[in-house]
Amino acid sequence: MSNPLQIVDISLVDAATAEELLNAATSQGFLFVEGHDFEQSEVDHLFELSRQFFELPSEYKQQYSRSNSNHGYVDYGGENLDPTTQKLGDPKEGLNFSGLDFLTGLTEEDIPQWFKDVPERHELVVSTIKKMYQLSIKILRILAIGLKIEDTNETKGSEWFASKYDPSKASGSTFRLLHYPGQKSLNPEAVIRAGAHTDYGSMTLLFQKEHQEGLEIYSPVSKGWEAVPYVSPNTAKYPGKAPPIVVNIGDQLSYWSAGLLRSTIHRVKFPKAVQETGQDRLSIVFFSHPNDDALLTPFPSPLTKDIKGRGANKDTVAITAKQHLDKRLAATYK
Ligand SMILES: O=C(O)CCC(=O)C(=O)O
Ligand SMILES: [Fe+2]
Fold first, then answer.
1. Does the complex come out with an ipTM higher than 0.90?
2. What does the CA dihedral 175, 181, 186, 191 come to, rounded to 10 degrees?
3. Distance CA 209, CA 192 (A)
């Protein structure tokens, strides 16, 4: 499968990396990142854990149904990512880990006992949550350099995003395991697995598996739907490491940058080959959000100061990260 997206190596935090990252974030709004520290074995275990969890009886999973704070199990059809077009919810199930403390990797509310029954299961979830948080902060620091965010009295420009990510303060960040069951039907009406949407946070990090493709972006470059392929790990460069991770710019970065960065529309669809094999899809996703009280007003930068009428610059009243998330979630989980 061809790859319309850039693969950016973030192992070096410097001006060249920042330039490359910014270019990808302002063009497609979707990219791959390599030079992260996720091991292949770790990601394999996570997918295995996810598969085993979703195989548990429905009654068991439903004991942990999604709470008002967006934590817990979401059953088939429980979420509709494209409520203006789709009547039915998405044909998928998910497990949300929300109310995250990034110092401990723990959640405020209970997670299914199944994860705690075996210490390795819980440890893997906890370490993944901490790593995802750290990776998103690293990417945000590099982006801040590329965006030439200016120093203020309170913060250094490169720390502008990170300063809104106090690890022990409440945020909308959510770690999710997602499962899209296979479907043999070739009914063209039933090919959407997750409706078209933009993500609500600052950025989303995602692992998918080979032969389980289906993620598509509405490319701002080609003005058409394009597949986000599975990209194999570069084992010569990074032995033992997991494949490049998908990075998706979300609404909040679009607001903060007055629309310079793109919160690109995407969806999950059954590609023909996957529909024919009846293959399931599993994805491992981290939705990175700043602290609840972070204002979504543009950062100070020569790159954005003259942009008017896009992103938050067009609004007269600034909203907080939590107000934005609550609004989006209310539409999704009607
Ligand atoms: O499962 C995927 O590949 C993407 C899901 C997604 O876009 C989302 O949950 O926001
Ligand atoms: Fe999404």
1. yes
2. -20
3. 18
CATH code, domain carrying 235: 2.60.120.330
Tokens, residue 333: 């989980």
Question: Looking at the domain assignment, is residue 221 inside a domain?
Answer: yes
Domain count, the chain: 1
For ligand 1, atom 8, which residue shows the shortest CA distance? Answer: 199
Q: What is the pTM of this model?
A: 0.95
Check pocket membership of 266 for ligand 1, CB cut-off 6 A: yes
Please report whether residue 147 resides in a domain.
yes
By three-state DSSP, how is residue 247 classified?
A: strand
pLDDT in tens, 185-202: 556 556 788 889 999 999
Domain that includes residue 83, residue range: 7-333
Q: Percentage of the chain with pLDDT > 90? A: 79
Query: Residue 204: inside a domain, yes or no?
Result: yes
Rounded to the nearest whole angstrom, what is the distance from the C-alpha of residue 149 to the centroid of ligand 1? 30
Nearest atom (ligand 1) to Cα of 266:
7
SS3 content of the chain, % helix, strand, coil (to 5): 30, 20, 50
Q: Cα separation of 106 and 126, whole Å? A: 6
Q: Which of 39-43, 186-190, 265-269 has the lowest mean pLDDT?
A: 186-190
Q: Which residue, judged by its Cα, is nearest atom 10 of ligand 1?
A: 199
Distance 268 CA to ligand 1 centre (A): 7
Decide if 152 is inside a domain: yes
Minimum-distance ligand 1 atom for the alpha carbon of 246: 3
Instruction: Give the atom of ligand 1 at the shortest distance from the alpha carbon of 283.
Output: 1
